From TrEMBL:
Required for the formation of a threonylcarbamoyl group on adenosine at position 37 (t(6)A37) in tRNAs that read codons beginning with adenine. InterPro entries: DHBP_synth_RibB-like_a/b_dom, Sua5-like_dom, Sua5/YwlC_C, Sua5_C, T(6)A37_SUA5, TC-AMP_synthase_SUA5. One of its GO terms (cellular component) is cytoplasm. Residues 23-209 form the YrdC-like domain. Gene3D superfamilies: DHBP synthase, Threonylcarbamoyl-AMP synthase, C-terminal domain. This is Threonylcarbamoyl-AMP synthase. PANTHER family: SUA5, THREONYLCARBAMOYL-AMP SYNTHASE. It comes from Candidatus Argoarchaeum ethanivorans. Its EC number is 2.7.7.87. Belongs to the SUA5 family. The keyword Cytoplasm applies. The lineage of its organism: Archaea, Methanobacteriati, Methanobacteriota, Stenosarchaea group, Methanomicrobia.
Length: 350
């Protein structure tokens, strides 16, 4: 044993939910959260790793289970809009408008923080990120816990976010107390994060709610980019993200099919291909091939993305060649954002 390293020897209970037992399971799991333990649960976006957001030790345990850097703050989950007042000092008018339009749903609002929320939850920031998920079990769990629930995605830091309970088990089994298994998630990528503490809202992370939908409701939005340091950024963006074991190469532009075929033919190890349906039709037969969906079917692309990255890892693929020819409208922007971050190389074809 390395001195100072945490030892994890929990037995992780998996509770399956169905139409008949959800409320009962969530009541039980809510008590577990209230006791200061860790419960992974499904949301509409990805699985989250939940703990009492106001309990410092419980939140610290989230960071060690995930091996997450301490300065990367957590999203606090609520089960109704009134609960926001417990953790946020005030609710700017624009935040209210966004909550009315998109909650429950895949939108996280960064708001001024109340001191009741410990530093460990917010990474020491004077803001707090809040979201009300659109998922029965998640909402019941939070309601039954009776406390706001801090929950990052339930993966080891740096890995693709989990879209099934098995993914959570693969990463965090033995490190957490319980997993609520609600099957595969619907959206497949995380929530959109928007900072509404300034004069103009800032998009910190694209996600389940498309930027077009946000613009329709609130008009002008600034988009946080690594290049423009005058715009606020999420602390999380500086870390490696969404990386499977295999190396990922992302191919974009008009000549994707030809470039992907050439790369796959030249590579000597085991190759996995993540393709849009249209590209798959011209690439032909080679390697482990997964079709994410049609180029314009961005919901399918997003839903299958993390799931497929993990599937290719299970097949011990060494190189994943990903097809970036899908639309970046709606949730497509989030899928492209995650794929870029997962990739160690980007090839743009003319
Ligand atoms: O869909 C989701 O958002 C999922 C589910 C479980 O709800 N959660 C999730 O959490 O993706 P996580 O921790 O993996 O990502 C949270 C992101 C990070 O990029 C973090 O830096 C940012 O939100 N964040 C959290 N609090 C913030 C704050 N006060 N200011 C700016 N960014 C913040
Ligand atoms: Mg995450």
């Amino acid at each position: 044993m390395i001195p100072g390293e945490p030892i994890f020897s929990k037995s992780t209970r998996v509770l399956h939910i169905n139409q008949n037992n959800t409320l009962e399971v969530c009541r039980f799991a809510g008590e577990v959260i209230r006791r200061g333990e860790l419960v992974a649960f499904p949301t509409e976006t990805v699985y989250g790793l939940g703990a009492d957001a106001l309990n410092q030790q419980a939140v610290r345990n989230i960071f060690s289970a995930k091996e997450r850097p301490a300065d990367n703050p957590l999203i606090v989950h609520v089960s109704n809009t009134d609960e926001v007042k417990r953790v946020a000092k005030n609710t700017p008018k624009i935040a209210q408008v966004l909550m009315d339009a998109f909650w429950p749903g895949p939108l996280t609002l960064v708001l001024p923080r109340k001191n009741i929320v410990p530093d460990v939850t917010t990474g020491g920031l004077d803001t707090v990120a809040v979201r009300m998920p659109d998922h029965l079990a998640a909402l019941e769990l939070i309601r039954e816990a009776g406390v706001p629930v801090a929950a990052p995605s339930a993966n080891t830091s740096g890995k693709p976010s989990p879209t099934t309970a098995q993914h959570v088990m693969d990463d965090l089994g033995g490190r957490i107390d319980m997993i609520i298994d609600g099957g595969r998630v619907v959206i497949g990528v995380e929530s959109t994060v928007i900072d509404v503490t300034g004069n103009i809202p800032v998009l910190l992370r694209p996600g389940g709610v498309g930027i077009e939908e946000l613009q329709e409701i609130i008009g002008r939005i600034r988009v946080s980019t690594p290049e423009d340091v005058s715009i606020p950024r999420s602390p999380g963006v500086k870390y490696t993200h969404y990386s499977p074991e295999a190396t990922v190469v992302l191919v974009t532009g008009d000549g994707v099919a030809g470039a992907i075929r050439k790369l796959a033919e030249e590579y000597e190890g085991k190759v996995g291909l993540l393709l849009c349906r249209e590209t798959a039709e011209t690439v032909g037969d080679m390697g482990e091939k997964i079709i994410l969906g049609s180029r314009n079917d961005v919901e399918s692309i997003a839903r299958n993305l993390f799931y497929s990255l993990r599937l290719l890892d299970k097949q011990h693929v060494e190189l994943i060649i990903a097809d970036g020819s899908f639309s970046v409208e709606g949730v497509g922007l989030a899928a492209m954002n995650r794929l870029k971050k997962a990739s160690s190389k980007l090839i743009h074809t003319g």
